[in-house]
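DM from R.C. (forwarded with permission)

"hey, sorry to bug you on a friday — could you get me a structure for this? deadline for the figure draft is monday and I only need the backbone to look sensible"
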Amino acid sequence: MAALCKDLVLLISQFLDEEGFKETARMLERESGYYFSMKFFEDMIRSGNWDEAERYLSCFTKLDDNRYSTKIYFEIRKQKFLEVLDNNERSKALDILMKDLKAFAPDNEELLKEMTLLLTLNNIRDHESLSMYSDAESARKVMMVELKKVIEANPLLRDKLEFPNIANHRLRRLINQSLNWQHMHCAYPQPNPDIRTLFVDHICVPIPSDDHLFSAASDSNPLPSQTTSMLVSTSSASNSTSSSEAHSSISSEALSLGVPTNIAMIEVLEDNTTVNDSGIPQNRIVNLKRPSNEEISTCMQEISDASLPDQSSVNISDDLPKNVFRILNEGSSPTSMDFHPEKQTVLLVGTTVGDIGLWEVSSGESLLSRNFKVWDIAACSMMFKATLLKDPSVSVNRVAWSPEGGLFGVAYSKHLVQIYSYNEAKDAQQQLEIDAHVGGVNDLTFSAPEKQLLVITCGDDKIVKAWDATDGVKMYTFEGHDAPVYSLCPYSKGNVHFVFATSVNGNIKVWLYDNLGARVDYDAPGLGCTSMAYSGDRRLFSCGTSRSGESFLVEWDDSEGAIKRTYLGLQKSSSRVVQFDIMKNQVLAAGDEHVIKIWDMNKIELFTTIDAEGGLPANPCVRFNKEGTLLAVSANDNKIKILAKDGSLQSLHTTENCLDDDFRVFSDTLKKLVSEAISKDDCAQDADEAVAKNGNLKAVKSKITGKDTMSKSGRLIELNSPSQCQILRLPSHMKANKISRLIYNNAGNSILALTSNATHLYWKWPQNDFDLSDTAAAKVSPQLWQPRSYSGLMTNDLTGSNPEETVPCFALSRNDSYLMSSSGGRISLYNLLKFKTMLSIMQPPPAATCIAFHPQDNNILAIGRDNSTILIYNVRSAKVITILEGHSKRVSGLAFSNDLNLLVSSGADAQIFVWNVEGWYKQRSTFLQIPNGRIPFSLSTDTHIQFHQNQTEFLSVHETHLAIYETRKLECVKQWIPGDFAAPISHATFSCDGQMVYASFLDGLVSIFDASDFQLYCQINPTAYLFPTSSLGVYPIAIAAHPQERNQFAVGLTDGGVIVFEPPISAGKWSMLTADENGSASKLPAESEANY
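My reply, with the result:
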């Protein structure tokens, strides 16, 4: 409770600041001592308000608490003394010396004597220590810099300097959510409640009829005009909704802390707002109406009935379907099941390979089986096409029937929702295909507010959407979750319709169908993936599993948003999310520990378990039919077991005249895509047509293919032997694994490599006889350097890492003194002068996959991680500044633009994001334009990025192409595609002046391009730099350009070697190479042969 009390105080402080009650906010800070406002303290110092500064400081620390506090008080009083003395107010200065500074005399007698002597000087600047004293304003500024350092080091203050990261207007939002909870559970809920006070709970007063209602407003007694005094902006804390009013969680139709609303006026505003917000035609708008008297009476009776305990004595054990009477073989592992709401023996199934099946379980007959295929690829988004081309595997996340059973929906792991119409037996027709979400569609359900059937979906893009089930028009968009949305639960009370949406971090929001923001926001136990469901008697249950594997099955008091009871018996270390279902109004069932666990709803103890004769997975999927007579459970080996209760087998409904299922095809997803949907080439062609139609390819101003690429001179220049250029293999006395990362230091006199076994190799060039400098050169061999005081190597932590999945990464500080590095374990900070590990941070998971130093502050890092997020971290304060989310796979590249104040990120999802550094928010994003017909060598191909010297363009490196983007518009201005039979690109980089691009390939080829048009200067074949005895599998995997010498670069090889390249002395530049008749470059003089 103490922690919650502190939170409440801080929320009140935020509220006071937002409302302009600044003095009251400072008073609360002083009295509570929870937060020290550095800004307010600095304002007092900079304005010379010494007494107020000390008064504020004294509430947090006293003069003699510690040496830091003493230092702060002394600096304030000393500056106060000097300013008075500089103004020739000697009597006042003497008073400060005797009263304020005398407190420091016991330990600083000599200093006090010196300050006393200042009273005798006509100008304090005559004193040697004050000769540089300029004026009061400058002195205060310098003093404040020092005070900040002391305050940050003071143990009594340093933990109180940062105000919690709280969304704007958080206290208002909590109040509004409370009011909405109260309103949703009013006995007589009105659409436009009259909220006059917070001192008592809100209760709607019943309104007999519309005539009586409107007669209350007349010329002589008009209703007040509509005002809303507490509109809450939620955009700072979460993604805003698409409507113009979406920034308010309270609107004309929701609750507000204002004067009574004019209902006639609201009806007009509702119409206008809905049209403007969603763009839905007027004839499609559905408004929630005030419930009629009959509805209110019915609702009240149902609530009263539900509140009464069930007095009947029910033998739960006799009613349980626990005997296996049918085993279905689905052909692939089931992921989701749902019984038909009317035909109790018809079961719909979705599987891991995207198949759907329909079974008549009473006879065990397969009614139909459909493999996954895209119905209309041309209508799908480019993002989906790129995703499908990159990874064609698709699974079913959810199958569900509509309330009447006339439709069923399928939610897939990539973007799509497909809706089928269903009549009898095998008659299922394609109804709708919707490209619904970016990423996976995690749940799908049906709802019918005001008798309009909607399909509700949620997905990895953190959004919930509602679609018209007849034509696929998007009716509502619910945004506000800060994590992918995992599950949905629609429900209604009277004519108030709403939907629960739960994200993967356990955050539960409740939405009404109005595009006006979430009405309720609270957390599920365990803060993990959770599903919710209402029983037939209006009781709300949820079941979920935390990230640590602990599972929770609970009943909620939905009027209070609190947990009513927690059921016992679920394991604490589940490897998957536990699924559950409800049998009528009696039983809860969950698949856990290879059995089906059963609870009596009214008792928290586990009632019994059903093993279904064995063969169940650890967390099977379970589903009851509507009457509770059948229970379907997923089993091992792609099977589904159908359980029935005693004595009911003979009464099961059987389907007549079922046609033979002759068209079932057992093939993998890739074959389905080739044979049924579209061939890869057709898919690419359709993608081209769709892109051209949408105009997206206009961004590519220059597209070059590598099929017949010649050099700038018109002839392909090839370097085939070591004699044709300057080559140096860096010395190493140890056997190294492949070079995963490679970089020059900023001074250009060292090369640093990170190997796949987590060790660092550091080469330094000595001063040489050629130019008396220590810069790196192919003419001079460097030393594999170590400090004299240290005999080992810098080795990264590998705890908890998987060598096969690890993505090594490192970043060098601007002053070349510090290195941040990771190889799948903790991130280590090294002092390069001593090879000393300064600190280790962030135990995985998630593991770091790329790191970048902020160009203006070495203490700030951007860390890309394998869970698709980017962490912005302050090393000095050891605090997370923010977490950027947007990628769907691991982040593989990060680059700052100092001039534009932007961060660019790339990922294995083939996406590029541009983030604003000042506010750490997303500005733009785009997908890579992967060439048609190009299938990446790996399903999770990393994309690397590097800024051009001009800081406005960056190079994107993907194994299928190279591209240069203009950063502000995120526009692809140049693209180079290898020839049809070329090997994939392994890495590439700009030269230091941005005039060339050095690129390496998996077949060992190294190419040098003109960056302005991607025309070749030359290409270096493996025979020019590899030992004759080298394995065929050796190739460059990392490439780095010298920071000052534009014609020098280095590559790191898969055999652990590092090669430095420079053009021949005779040419001096790569661009000046000439070719003989067969295209080979001219040879070097004998004395310039390569150095191995």
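R.C.: lifesaver. The two ends are 70 Å apart (CA to CA).
me: no worries. The CA atoms of residues 1050 and 1060 lie 4 Å apart.
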